[in-house]
């Protein structure tokens, strides 16, 4: 029977004494994870064979995070809070594991790590050990939605988590190293996007332990007044908890947190009772503690606790006398006072932690797939663009997608589980239709002329930061909701690393049966390399596809819908999937529309296919195959085919369009890949292929490397040529235009004789004519800009 | 004869009136650049044929930047300042061009854009026009060292520019949109790294025009007190200049700037006379002006000036009646009062701008190659590691490079033109030797225990921000100095986009004869995918090579030195080059050392070569070729070869190592590429090749796509498998270990019969033994960890 504990405000000294013991237990488990192979309760004297051969992990950040954890436990119990904890400092994941173990979460999820001596031994051994668990917070860590590898995204993730979760608190430890990164620095502004009525609370706890790996930290050395000013300027009210004496600090922290929670409740009560969403000044905590707190004071004559030398393992096992130091340190926690003989935490201490799903490790928001509910989707066919004949009408793909997105907002208005994210580009990317029913999120001062701003908006395009868009969306998805991020293609590279880390997170989650699947990360590239009339060279980079193509095949998908109806079908698919990173290359400019909805559905379902209406090889072997992926390359490939078919009607041409890029890969390398037989039936084994590609040509070469006819494939694509010029001229500069394509085809069709040579010369003339025309007029040749496919 | 102008403090009203005229001239030229094909002085009524068919560019940010420019001109003349201007807002490059034209810089550099009506007509037509110049500040813009495409790096660039330039002021307009990006947000901390004695001044001018593309800005809507607090917290003293009445604003700006310059001079005088480098509180300016100031007030019933609708072109030419609006607007500047009949700026206005190199467009710091001086380099051969026999001794490559870097600091101590950059990783990357002679840069509070911190340090590793490291280095290089950025390979992806933009900048500079060459951007990846014992999966990403491989071949280089002596030779080469982005993959962990200095010099000069001592095909055709690139793959390839040569001595093996990755490309695709004949002489046309690669295998497939034996090449490399484990186990997980390599070779040597099958089985057994051993012990098999090449 668990002893009842007194749990009151202010906390009693007796309660704080018990919390200190719990903290000692967490520190003990954290330290032992670094070192011990065996003898987990130190019942025997420590001998070298009980120590890991290679000791890798971090200590410096650990004790303060254990301190936060035990105080969060108190708050959860005392106020019955729905609270998750994000660990920004990254390394020191042993702290989170230790606390998960103490409250039983860890053993429930990993029964082999049992609540006894044997389990504790395994807990210690597995940490940062081959076949074991990472040294930082990771997908393997119950309760974590934040990987502690790359730094800077904790507040963005936390903020994404609490959007539309009015009862959730995301306590977020921010390291003072992490605080120096760009993404974290701008994250402090996130309070301008939080609605105190409909969103939850981000509670930042900036831990100033003063040091990074080998340097002091900027925030650790700013003056008290500078800290106060900085956070006031960012719109937060900082509460300081500073010191190193444990019991003094427990008192200070408990009292401060009581004040902070009272302030949060006061803010929420006012906002919700008065229906006043005005941005409040939210509280935050600045926790200044020694780095490596409670760890070894001095080793080899050097100060460790309170110094940067505490960052990783505080005692290297490179000298025999260090064994005693280690033993003394570990014994200083007096595990025998905290665990019973069998290795079980004493019930009076266990009672300090919450129960069931209130445990930080078991909170369903931190295993968001548990809360995942299907997004209600309208029938995308209802938004079909009536194309008339193939290529007869021009229209704008993303603009046509807008009403479909708008209606997703409508259909899920009750669930409030859908947001879209864009760095000030919603209109530029042509999603204006969403404003029929939804606003932009904005909780700063507003004016009458502002366009669709509201503290309740769920269109997240009011902050010019790709990092925040990506981080918010990740946090939103990780807690079981839905959305997408639309951005300029070139600037997707700003979040290369974030997206890669998310892909890695998903890959690991796929190997953890207890991690429930979440909605895919949908990244839509809307302002692409091919039309940058006034932005030019700096806005041209289609390499995000290359970047993602290197990631685990089970996780990544790349789609290049060539028109509106294909974009609709693709988005519908992407929004239904789970645990993928879907990259969608979409067009926003007026373009011919090729496929009816019926054709588009079939085409997108196959992912790759022959367009019969553009081909003339029906029933025969083609002389040449034209393939394409991406809307501009498709347009030019069709224009090239129309020239060839008109000028050389006897030529048999097959026209292939690729929507799902990984169809090109062998089946053995990607679940979507075609078998060689399937591939050869499309591309032939022995006919020349002209492949007009949206991105860098090398990517298609990579994907088709093992195919039979790879030597016969000529790939055109972006080759880093561009400046301010017309849409057609940038195609010409990169050889993806119709005239170059026809030339490329002719070079591979030597048997055409004079007729080929004549057409080749004609194409050269066209290229000269084009250059002269745009030089004089600044616009494209009418025969190009007004070109129509004739069915 | 130019009229003398009164230039006094405070500025006279007469002088401010003239400045206002100059500003009107700049605004006029900026607006006309957006619209006009002809009729530059509006001598005739405006007709549709005089208007560009497609009007693309930005207006919103322009007038305030013109305002800043004219006031900077005043300061330069009044105080004889050495001042450059960085334009953070990005778009609106027409403002910089307008001012360059007004002071004559533009015509000096581009004589066809002459100082007369004909030149003005060309000036207008070329802007954002095919074959013309980009719409944002760009390499083409005289005086700019900052591309206005991707936002967020202006302060970092400015700060890099003023390091070790004590007399330079980098005035930096920060847009309130840009201010929301992560990199810019953390840039405010840069004052902690500026030495008031030996560095110059970053003078931020935060322009609050209140709007981005379609949204208000966060900084634009923060309260006055929040702005004051924020910048006080960041360590700046903000001076506010707010309003919209031109003459009132000129008075306010001039007086404020006089105060700011006085404050800067006071800070510098104190620091330099007292030799007191203590971080001062530097002044900055907050300039609040209407977006699209002086532009059209209302168009189609919508407010334009002071609204987000002023962002791009304020009057679309989609309605006939807009022609009159445009005409009224352009006439409102009264060009006839500013330019003479021939189109030349009136001398009394021209006299407001500085002369010669003091002009912002002609300041040599903004064309840094002018100031570039060779770095003095020690003879790298003096730092040779004595390898004994091939592979006999272990050592750490980057640690061995340290003394060479240290001595670069020594040799250039007078020139003060060398810095190294790293996000808190200098020690982790093993460059401790530099601390013999140089300190870390740190100008915050310091303690006795801090390790080599000084306000005069030139080791820039005290801020944990890849963005700042990259931005600082770019600014340092762009102003004619030298350095490199060493970082964890995986986290180089954080600056993917920045490095790509720099590569694009260099590519364009190479086409501009007036842009003098600068030192290459050297990016060293020191903590690589292959040894992440306690960081694991999140720290594994070798894709920066793939990223750079897509950039212009004339600009990018990738080197994979396999040992210390090769790293020394490679660094020496990279530090001598100009206008490249050099990516260097370097090892920091203890590894066998393969090549003597003499061998290394030859090998690195060739970039690729056969290692005779590892091969046994001398004088004969090989049965198989082993190739490798990168230190870990080289180690495992050699180990595999040693197994094969021992077990199957009759097998003829050729061993090739690649240092310069682009040797693999055809000569036609990269200046370093081998001809097919050269390539075939190394790799053969018809023998199997096992290529063990540092990065993703696809990159080698890409590079060798067109080679004769591409189908016979089997590439092993990183395939996104990794977690906490031993160095050897992560190789096994990715199939780049010796046992997998031998198996791969045997699969391609079917004629070995039973002997091959026997060895294949033996390799399988080894892999099982390995797994069991690390599971039990947590370390690698002694036969692996203690393996030595036997010469």
From TrEMBL, chains A, B:
CDD domains in the record: TPP_PK (cd02011)
Domain named Xylulose 5-phosphate/Fructose 6-phosphate phosphoketolase N-terminal: residues: 12-370
Cofactor(s) listed: thiamine diphosphate
EC number: 4.1.2.-
Lyase keyword on record: yes
Keyword entries, A-Z: Lyase, Thiamine pyrophosphate
SUPFAM superfamilies: Thiamin diphosphate-binding fold (THDP-binding)
Name of one Pfam family that matches: XFP_C
Domain Xylulose 5-phosphate/Fructose 6-phosphate phosphoketolase C-terminal: 588-789
Keyword Nucleus among record annotations: no
HAMAP family the UniProt entry points to: Phosphoketolase (MF_01403)
Similarity comment: family membership: Belongs to the XFP family.
NCBIfam families per the UniProt record, alphabetical: PRK05261.1-2 (NF003617), PRK05261.1-4 (NF003619)
Protein known as: Probable phosphoketolase
Lineage: Bacteria, Bacillati, Bacillota, Negativicutes, Veillonellales
């Amino acid at each position: 029977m668990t002893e009842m504990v007194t749990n009151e405000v202010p906390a009693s000294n007796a309660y704080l004494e018990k919390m200190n013991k719990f903290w000692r237990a967490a520190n003990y488990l954290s330290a032992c994870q670094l070192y011990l192979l065996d003898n987990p309760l130190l019942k025997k004297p420590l001998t070298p064979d009980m120590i890991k051969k290679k000791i890798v992990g971090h200590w410096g950040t650990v004790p303060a995070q254990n301190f936060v954890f035990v105080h969060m436990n108190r708050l959860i119990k005392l106020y019955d809070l729905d609270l998750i904890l994000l660990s920004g400092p990254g390394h020191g994941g042993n702290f989170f594991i230790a606390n998960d173990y103490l409250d039983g979460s860890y053993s429930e999820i990993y029964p082999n790590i049992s609540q006894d001596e044997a389990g504790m031994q395994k807990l210690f051994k597995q940490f940062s050990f081959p076949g074991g668990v990472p040294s930082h917070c990771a997908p393997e860590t119950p309760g974590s939605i934040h990987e502690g590898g790359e730094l800077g995204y904790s507040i963005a993730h936390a903020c994404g988590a609490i959007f539309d979760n009015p009862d959730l608190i995301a306590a977020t430890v921010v390291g003072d190293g992490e605080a120096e990164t760009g993404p974290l620095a701008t994250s402090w502004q996130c309070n301008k996007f939080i609605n105190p009525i409909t969103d939850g609370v981000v509670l930042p706890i900036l831990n100033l332990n003063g040091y990074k790996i080998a340097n002091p930290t900027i925030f650790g050395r700013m003056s008290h007044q500078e800290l106060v000013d900085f956070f006031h300027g960012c719109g937060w009210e900082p509460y300081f908890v500073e010191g190193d004496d444990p019991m003094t600090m427990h008192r200070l922290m408990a009292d401060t947190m009581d004040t902070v929670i009272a302030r949060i409740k006061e803010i929420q009560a006012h906002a919700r009772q008065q229906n006043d969403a005005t941005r409040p000044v939210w509280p935050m905590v600045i926790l200044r503690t020694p780095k490596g707190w409670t760890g070894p004071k001095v080793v080899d004559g050097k100060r460790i606790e309170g110094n940067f030398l505490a960052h990783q393992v505080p005692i290297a096992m490179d000298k025999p006398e260090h064994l005693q130091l280690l033993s003394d340190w570990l014994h200083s926690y007096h595990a025998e006072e905290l665990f019973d003989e069998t290795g079980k935490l004493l019930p009076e201490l266990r009672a300090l932690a919450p129960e069931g799903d209130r445990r930080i490790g078991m909170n369903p928001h931190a295993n968001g797939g548990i809360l995942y509910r299907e997004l209600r989707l309208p029938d995308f066919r209802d938004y079909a663009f009536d194309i008339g004949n193939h290529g007869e009408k021009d229209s704008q793909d993303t603009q046509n997608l807008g009403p479909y997105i708008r209606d997703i907002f409508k259909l899920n208005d009750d669930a409030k589980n859908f947001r879209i994210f864009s760095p000030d580009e919603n209109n530029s990317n042509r999603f204006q239709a969403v404003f029929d029913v939804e606003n932009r999120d904005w909780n700063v001062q507003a004016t009458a002329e502002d366009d669709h701003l509201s503290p309740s908006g769920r269109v997240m395009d009011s902050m010019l930061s790709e990092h925040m868009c990506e981080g918010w969306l990740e946090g939103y998805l990780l807690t079981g909701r839905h959305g997408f991020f639309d951005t300029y293609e070139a600037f997707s590279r700003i979040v290369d690393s974030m997206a890669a880390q998310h892909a890695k997170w998903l890959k690991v989650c796929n190997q953890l049966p207890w991690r429930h699947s979440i909605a895919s990360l949908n990244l839509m590239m809307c302002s692409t390399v091919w039309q940058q009339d006034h932005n030019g060279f700096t806005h041209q980079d289609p390499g995000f596809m290359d970047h993602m193509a290197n990631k685990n095949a089970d996780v990544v998908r790349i789609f290049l819908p060539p028109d509106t109806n294909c974009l609709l079908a693709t988005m519908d698919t992407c929004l239904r999937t789970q645990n993928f990173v879907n990259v969608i290359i979409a067009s926003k400019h007026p373009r011919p529309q090729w496929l009816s909805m019926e054709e588009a559905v079939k085409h997108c379902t196959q992912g790759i296919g022959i367009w019969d209406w553009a081909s003339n090889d029906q029933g025969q072997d083609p002389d040449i195959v034209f393939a394409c992926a991406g809307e501009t390359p498709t347009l030019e490939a069709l224009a090239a085919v129309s020239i060839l078919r008109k000028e050389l009607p006897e030529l048999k041409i097959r026209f292939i369009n690729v929507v799902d890029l990984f169809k090109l890969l062998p089946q053995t390398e990607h679940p979507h890949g075609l078998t060689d037989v399937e591939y050869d039936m499309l591309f032939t084994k022995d006919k020349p292929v002209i492949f007009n590609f949206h991105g860098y040509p090398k990517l298609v070469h990579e994907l088709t490397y093992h195919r039979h006819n790879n030597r016969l494939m000529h790939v055109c694509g972006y080759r880093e040529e561009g400046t301010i010029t017309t849409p057609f001229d940038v195609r010409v500069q990169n050889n993806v235009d119709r005239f170059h394509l026809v030339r490329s085809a002719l070079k591979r069709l030597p048997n055409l004789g004079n007729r080929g040579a004549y057409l080749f010369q004609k194409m050269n003339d066209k290229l000269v004519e084009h250059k002269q025309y745009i030089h004089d007029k600044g616009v494209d040749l009418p025969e190009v800009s007004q070109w129509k496919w004739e069915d």
